[in-house]
Design goal:
14 strands, 5-stranded mixed sheet, 237 residues, alpha/beta, globular
């Protein structure tokens, strides 16, 4: 593998696409650029949209991609907020590597955000609040296999996505939605008995009320900053 110097971090979301160039420690060396995710966004449109988005950024030699779904070996298995029917089996890492002319790695977007923020002490949980809900679990800094908790029933047959996603936030308002999030945090602590929780994603800043102990709200830039740690990993899911 060629030496890593600068990494293009790409954070794919159901609502927005974000990207920036980072160094090997995850520090931004460019501005973070953003564009709305096209309403109907199959793979070909995604690749073209991302290529246009990152064109003004400075040079990079590696690419790290955070994708909102289950991914394996650079392929998309599920894409709940983009359309699994369009995406299942697509080799996005390879397609972006070819289009942007640099080796690429891909991981779940919550996992990539977690790589940027966890401290490597005990059991750490990352929850991202955005179009949908993302989760990532770490044991003493080691990333666990990805779990799609967002699609597990949570309340009255509603999944985490349906109960806490952006659609519900807009429907019921910040205060009621925040109470739901805080209730869910308690459920997750009972389920996982984590030592620390990190809340990220675009809607984390909309939470009202006091956060529980051992909970940290993190910047949304972590979604691209985690790309540095992704390129330090020998194995990943």
């Amino acid at each position: 593998m060629t030496r890593v110097r600068h990494i293009l971090g790409i954070d794919i979301g159901g609502t927005g696409l974000k990207a920036a160039v980072i160094d090997t420690k995850g520090k931004l060396v460019s501005k973070r650029v953003r564009t709305p995710t096209p309403r109907h966004c199959p793979p070909k449109i995604m690749v073209k949209t991302l290529a246009k988005l990152v064109a003004p950024l400075p040079a990079y030699d590696h690419i790290a991609i955070g994708f909102p779904g289950v991914v394996r070996d650079g392929h998309v298995l599920t894409a709940p907020n983009l359309g699994t029917k369009d995406w299942a089996g697509f080799a996005l890492a390879r397609a972006l590597s070819k289009a942007l002319k640099a080796p690429a790695r891909m991981i779940n977007d919550a996992d990539m955000q977690g790589l940027a923020v966890v401290r490597g002490r005990g059991i750490e949980l990352v929850v991202t609040l955005g179009t949908g809900i993302g989760t990532a679990l770490f044991d003493h800094g080691k990333l666990a296999p990805h779990m799609e908790l967002a699609h597990h029933p949570l309340h009255s047959n509603k999944t985490y996505d349906e109960y806490l996603g952006d659609h519900e936030l807009k429907k019921i308002g910040r205060n009621k939605w925040s109470k739901r999030v805080l209730k869910t945090i308690g459920i997750l602590h009972t389920l996982l008995n984590y030592d620390h929780l990190y809340l990220g994603g675009g809607n984390a800043k909309k939470l009202t009320g006091k956060l529980p102990a051992r909970t940290t709200r993190v910047s949304n830039t972590a979604g691209v900053e985690g790309g540095a740690a992704l390129w330090r990993m020998r194995t990943f899911y």
